[in-house]
Amino acid sequence: MKKINLFAVLALAATPAFLNAQTTSYSDIVGYQSTPLAVGLNPVGFPLLNSDLLKTTASSTTSNAVSLTGQTDVGSLLTTGEPYYVEIYSGSLKGDRFDVDTVATKTAANGSVVLSSSSSNNTYPVGSIASQLNGQTVALRKHVTLEQVQSFVQGSLVGNNTAGNADQILLFNTATQQFLTYFLRADGVTWRGSTTGTVSQNKVPVPPGTGVFIKKNGSTVNIVTAGTVRQNDFALPYVSGLQLQAPGFPLSYSPGALGATSANGWSGNNTAASADQIQIFNPGTASFATYFLRADGSTWRGTTTGTTPQTSNNIVGDSVAYFVKKASANADNVLVNPVQ
Questions:
Q1: What is the pLDDT of residues 26-70, one digit of tens each?
Q2: Residue 323 lies in a domain
Q3: Contact of 324 with 245, CB cutoff 8 Å
Q4: What H or E segment, with its residue span, contains residue 103?
Q5: Alpha-carbon distance 74 to 106, whole Å?
Q6: Which residues are paired to 52 by β-bridges?
Q7: What is the average pLDDT score of the chain?
Q8: Domain residues for 242?
Q9: What span, in angstroms and rounded, lies between the C-alpha atoms of 139 and 259?
Q10: CA-to-CA dists, residue 196 to 102, 199, 277, angstroms
């Protein structure tokens, strides 16, 4: 799939502040990406972030409520029905993320954000946080949602009240190892799930690091995203089995850059089917290219590329979803911040 990655860096260095030559100010790195959606299935990721609603330090954690410095009503920043998460920027949990209990945070109406202890999107157990967030920097922001993904599309998606005839967004459930299918209704606005009845699914989140497949009917369109570039380590836990992932940064990755070695918990084997794998979907051929870790624990090969090592080849695109197949889980996997 041809992609254009137009990485608009607005501020990598300090800029003198107006009227004060001794003061420097810094702004976030932002950019945009444009990716064509061909007719059929397209693997897509969303590494660019929604803007921070706030970024401050945490002062204490009581149960699942994190008190934030300088805040008096965190709930007033949230919109009912929208999904949010907190990302940790320093300390022992740097790079971890926790979903927010929006209702509880708005009900509390104080200086704390209430975390959702039961969310499968959390990269660390809420019950194990204890004092690890005290004095650490945290950011609060909104998740990308299904309706926001639709807003990224330049052109129109096809809506239909029959799921098979509508444009779809597919998320992969690691617990069931099956896809969850969401389709656009004929009104062109409402998203429903194939197993969720008549309840609108517009606010279903696409968590950071999670890829999707977009099934497109009709003609090719572009999907254009804009947002902030993450400047933080990125927790990317692995489960045993398949997981549909996406880069946490707008960068292409090789197996080596992903840290995919036996030293980091990957399982190698000279037989592809018995090894941990990275699977890349090609929309043009509607098939997967499979790469696997060799028994030496460091060399990657493709099942169709012979003996040529693929370890340093950027097989994962900067805005593309990809499957990882692992024999063993690794809850502690972290991608180090490449934006220094």
A1: 568 999 999 999 999 999 999 999 999 999 999 999 999 999 999
A2: yes
A3: yes
A4: helix 102-108
A5: 7
A6: 141
A7: 93
A8: 234-335
A9: 26
A10: 21, 6, 32
